[in-house]
Amino acid sequence: MRQSRKLDHIKYSLSLADGPGISGFADIGLIHNCLPNLGWDELDISSSIAGIPINNPLIINAITGGAHDVTTVNGQIAEFARLTNTAMAVGSQYAALEYPEVEQSYKIVREKNPNGIIFANLGAYATPRQAQLAVDMIDAQAIQIHLNVAQELIMTEGDRDFSGYLINIANIVERVKVPVIVKEVGCGIAKEQAKQLAEIGIKAIDVGGMGGTNFLAIEAARSQIDIYPETLSWGIPTAISAVEIMSVLPRHVDMVVSGGIRTALDVVKSLALGGTGVGMATPIIRMLHEKDIEYTVNWFNNLLHEIKCYMILSGIANIKDSAKVPVVITGYTKEWLMARGIDTTQYGIRT
Ligand SMILES: Cc1cc2nc3c(=O)[nH]c(=O)nc-3n(C[C@H](O)[C@H](O)[C@H](O)COP(=O)(O)O)c2cc1C
Question: Is the CB of 151 under 6 A from ligand 1?
Answer without folding.
Answer: no
